[in-house]
């Protein structure tokens, strides 16, 4: 009796890169999700779709390096402006390695409802002329799908860094990034995006990462800020951003890169990608404008930082809905997110005493929840089947929030007991740039 492809893979007798289309379709694990078009896709991928996905991947990577770096750095004090760059650089490298070795396999191979299998350990079968397709993206090489999803994993952890800046050790961030990608991000991605995941089976709708990226990162950021503790002088000393122009430049890169984030999640250069891009632009614009109005009503001025933050709130909220909604839905979601996030950003830290430095939870966590819950409300069946209800999407958002936050506490307990979480008080007072990295931005 001939062994199954899965057995052959596990035995190491040959790699998936050399597997034929017939074996792929015959595999018990893959046959549940692989559409018929995979056979033809293996013979000849769509060049236009592949090119678009490579561009989208670059756009999403630019959101992190340098987009998020600049956005975060400009809002910090001069003495810590370089440290956040170091943390994001280091975490991007670590997440890439973990994703390549095991994270992708946990997230995007069939297994059970909770975890994927080990078919893609060390990116098995993703390099070479005979690379296959992933069922979610059947017209492009799986290696392109792998890279696009890697860029999501990279920015997901980078977002969390904004909650703990100005006092967390670089070594702690490195260990945290590895464990969080493996134990939090990869399983959640499997639940929501892999067809065999339990939330996917419930019909949970998340087009581009409102739940997987933003709710998870927001909850983890809040948990991390609580675990690390507040900065010295939090609530009693002024902590003024050192260069808002840098922050606005970062916001611009994030806004532009978000087109790859959302439109790329169509996995093809077609009408749905265009619709997702349009929804993204409308939601961001509505949210930026409403945030400015909120500021004007509250204090008679519209700030540059406020409008930039509002745009980010709208981008976050429209992420899970972008491939499902029209202009009116995008407008409503952007407006709702702006109102909710404005109230959270201006009140949450003062009310709770948790020093979430750059408002990761107030923006990403709550913005992601708003967008996720509103997806079924504004999703159009003319664009795609509406498989979720407000209830199922709310369940998904709350479960992901609880799991990400709880696992982050456990991970950071381990980090605290091994490498430690915080720099010493003297280093924090002098600034992490000079004490931890031997570098500094020259004072004006």
- Described by the principal axes of the CA atoms, the overall outline is globular
Helix content: 55-70%
CATH top level label: Mainly Alpha
Query: End-to-end span in angstroms?
Result: 76 Å
Number of strands: 0
Which stretches are poorly predicted, pLDDT < 50 over at least 5 residues? 1-43
Content-based structural category: mainly alpha
Main sheet: strands, sense, barrel:
none
Cα-atom Rg, whole angstroms? 22 Å
CATH topology: Ammonium transporter fold
Superfamily at the CATH H level?
Ammonium transporter AmtB like domains
| Mean pLDDT across residues | 90
Number of domains: 1
Total of helices: 17
Task: Kindly estimate the percentage of residues that lie in beta strands according to DSSP.
Answer: under 5%
Order of helices and strands: HHHHHHHHHHHHHHHHH
Any overview of this molecule?
- The protein is an all-alpha fold and 444 residues long.
- The protein is built from 17 helices and no strands.
- The longest helix is centred in the middle third of the chain and has 29 residues.
- The chain is globular, with a radius of gyration of 22 Å.
- The N terminus is likely disordered.
Any key phrases for this structure?
Ammonium transporter fold; mainly alpha; disordered N terminus; 444 residues; globular; 17 helices
């Amino acid at each position: 009796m001939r062994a199954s492809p899965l057995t052959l893979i596990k035995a190491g007798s040959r790699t998936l890169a050399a597997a034929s289309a017939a074996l792929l379709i015959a595999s018990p694990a893959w046959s549940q999700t692989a559409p018929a078009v995979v056979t033809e896709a293996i013979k000849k991928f769509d060049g236009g779709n592949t090119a678009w996905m490579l561009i989208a991947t670059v756009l999403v990577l630019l959101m992190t390096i340098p987009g998020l770096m600049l956005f975060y750095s400009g809002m910090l004090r001069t003495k810590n402006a370089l440290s956040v760059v170091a943390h994001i650089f280091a975490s991007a490298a670590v997440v890439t390695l973990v994703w390549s070795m095991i994270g992708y396999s946990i997230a995007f191979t069939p297994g059970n409802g909770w975890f994927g299998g080990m078919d893609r350990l060390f990116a098995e079968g993703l390099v070479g002329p005979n690379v296959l397709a992933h069922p979610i993206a059947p017209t492009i090489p799986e290696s392109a799908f792998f890279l696009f999803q890697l860029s999501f994993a990279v920015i997901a952890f980078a977002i969390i860094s904004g909650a703990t800046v100005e006092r967390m050790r670089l070594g702690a961030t490195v260990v945290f990034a590895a464990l969080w990608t493996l134990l939090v991000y990869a399983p959640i991605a499997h639940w929501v995006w892999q067809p065999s995941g339990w939330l996917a089976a419930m019909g949970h709708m998340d087009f581009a990462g409102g739940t997987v990226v933003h709710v998870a990162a927001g909850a983890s950021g809040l948990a991390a800020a609580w675990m690390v503790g507040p900065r010295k002088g939090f609530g009693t000393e002024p902590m003024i951003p050192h260069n808002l122009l840098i922050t606005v430049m970062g916001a611009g890169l994030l806004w532009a890169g978000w087109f790859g984030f959302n439109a790329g999640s169509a996995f093809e250069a077609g009408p749905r990608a265009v619709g997702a891009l349009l929804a993204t632009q409308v939601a961001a614009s509505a949210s930026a404008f409403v945030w400015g109005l909120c500021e004007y009503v509250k204090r008679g001025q519209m700030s540059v930082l406020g409008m930039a933050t509002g745009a980010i709130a709208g981008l976050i909220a429209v992420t899970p809905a972008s491939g499902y909604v029209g202009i009116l839905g995008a407008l409503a979601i952007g407006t709702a997110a702006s109102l909710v996030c404005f109230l959270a950003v201006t009140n949450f830290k003062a009310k709770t005493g948790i020093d979430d430095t750059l408002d990761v939870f107030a923006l990403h966590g709550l913005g992601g929840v708003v967008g996720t819950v509103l997806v079924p409300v504004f999703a159009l069946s003319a664009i795609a089947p509406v498989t979720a209800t407000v209830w199922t999407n709310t369940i998904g958002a709350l479960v992901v929030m609880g799991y990400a936050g709880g696992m982050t506490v456990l991970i950071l307990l381990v980090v605290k007991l091994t490498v430690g979480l915080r720099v010493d008080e003297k280093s924090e007072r002098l600034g992490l740039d000079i004490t931890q990295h031997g570098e500094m931005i020259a004072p004006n």
